[in-house]
Each structure stands twice: as structure tokens, then as C-alpha cells.
Specification:
This protein is α+β, with helices and mostly antiparallel strands and 177 residues long. It has a single domain, classed as Invasion associated locus B (IalB) protein (Immunoglobulin-like). It has an 11-stranded antiparallel β-sheet with strand order 1-2-3-5-6-9-8-7-10-11-4, sandwiched between helices. The radius of gyration is 15 Å and the shape is globular.
Length: 177
């Protein structure tokens, strides 16, 4: 594994472990995520959140644009919770605080989706939107994510969807979904 991929994997593991209590909405003692596979541009991780096994796939943008001086790590996540009735939860961590009450626009092929924002994260509005999102991701080649920072800076992140279907299947299998 080359150094940049290894660094990216460590960053994804660290960020997800730190954000788990925020993402789940309740405090937990998170286990350390374990990398369980790389599928082209997507990686699969698993861990126990205290309530059961959690499996997620993650990717970073292949290209990011915007007139910003500094920006944190950007990660797109799709998460399955084995013991809860939650699967394929869409989430992006953007590396900056979103403009309050703003939405994020995501384009995949001819499909467009909106995500709601909270701090530096954005989610699909409901389970039906999560499902539609995943279907489009499985069929697409690239995904373009546009958001606006709290300072008004417009950003565009482009993610490759190469390997998404295989990673999604592996994460689902790991969590019994």
C-alpha cells in the first residue's frame, strides 16, 4: 500500500472514530475501526460501537475546488448498523463548517440530490433518499458534491464511484444487511 493511501486510511479511521458519538446521536465508547478491504476508490471499515457492529465504506474526493485558504479532510461515508434498523446511511464530512440552514447539492449522472447540513456534516433527509442515493451511486461513474461554507465559499468535490458497488456489498455482508 503506498504512503498516500496509508495516510488517507489512517485519517478516515481517526475521523470516524472521533465522530461516531456525533453521527449516532448518543454517547458511546467506540471501538477502533478496522480496515477490512479496498475496492478501487472506496475502503470498507468495521468496528463495534457498544450497541453492535458498524460497517461503513468511505472515500475521499479525486478533485476539490473552491477559493479557500485551508480546509480539513473531506470524506463521503455510507454506514450500516448491524443491530439497528439503519442501513446505507449517507453522510459527508466536508472539512469546514457549512453555512447555517444551507443544503448540499449532489449530482450523479442525471440525478440530483439534496443533503441537509449541520456543522461540518451533511446527510440525506430520510431512508428513502438514502436508498435512492445508493442506487444512483451504484450506477454512476462520478459524484459531484457542491456546498457553501459558513464564510460563503462555494466548494465542489468530485468523488470517483469506481469500486463503490463492491465496497457497498462487502460492508453490507459484514453487517448482515
Amino acid at each position: 500500500m503506498n504512503a498516500s493511501v496509508n495516510t488517507a486510511l489512517k485519517t478516515v479511521l481517526f475521523v470516524f472514530a472521533l465522530l461516531l458519538p456525533v453521527l449516532s446521536g448518543k454517547p458511546v465508547l467506540a471501538g477502533v475501526p478496522e480496515h477490512s478491504g479496498t475496492y478501487s476508490d472506496w475502503n470498507v471499515f468495521t468496528f463495534d460501537d457498544g450497541a453492535g457492529k458498524v460497517c461503513y465504506l468511505a472515500s475521499q474526493p479525486i478533485k476539490s475546488t473552491g477559493k479557500y485558504k485551508t480546509r480539513g479532510e473531506v470524506h463521503f461515508l455510507v454506514t450500516h448498523y448491524a443491530k439497528r434498523k439503519e442501513a446505507a446511511v449517507i453522510n459527508i464530512i466536508t472539512g469546514y463548517t457549512y453555512k447555517e440552514n444551507s443544503d448540499v447539492l449532489v449530482s450523479i449522472g442525471g440525478n440530483e440530490f439534496e443533503l441537509f447540513t449541520d456543522g461540518d456534516k451533511a446527510w440525506a433527509f430520510n431512508e428513502a433518499a438514502d436508498r435512492a442515493f445508493v442506487i444512483a451511486m451504484k450506477r454512476g461513474r462520478n459524484m459531484t458534491v457542491k456546498g457553501k461554507s459558513s464564510r460563503g465559499t462555494q466548494t465542489t468535490d468530485i468523488f470517483s464511484l469506481t469500486g463503490f458497488s463492491a465496497a457497498f456489498k462487502a460492508a453490507g455482508k459484514a453487517c448482515g444487511k
